[in-house]
Here is the input.
Amino acid sequence: MPPDSFRDRILTLVRQIPYGRVATYGQLAALAGAPRRARQVGHILRHAEDPMLPWHRVINHRGRISLPHGAGYEVQKQLLLQEHIEFDADDCIDLDRFGWRPAFD
DNA sequence: GTACTGACGACAC
DNA sequence: CGTGTCGCCAGTA
Here is the structure.
């Protein structure tokens, strides 16, 4: 059967997010040509099995981690802290500073 | 097949 | 800031 091009594009995009930067679900969906499918991006990442995939660099549009506490939240935060990405007092990441801007890489 | 859920987001209050 | 509604669609039951 043919590969799922949308899923394939998302995974490719996630792999392109540079170290120390984060992208949002909606941003990835838009870059993949499907701006309304942010939710599917989450599904794709949840079912992704590639351990090398930098899934932790994907957060929601508010600059916060979408995973529930105790179900990956802490893990993702630690992975991001290891990349020197900062969180404010509300566990929020400043997208103006750490958001991925493809044009600049 | 139907119904509900969810790692989302835009928009309206 | 919050809360609710709607659109989206792959999984799951």
Observations:
- Residues 29, 34, 36-40, 43-44, 46-47 of chain A lie near DNA strand C (CB under 10 Å from a C1').
- Helices of chain A lie at 5-16, 25-31, 38-47, 73-82, 95-98.
- The longest helix of chain A spans residues 5-16.
- The beta strands of chain A are 23-24, 58-59.
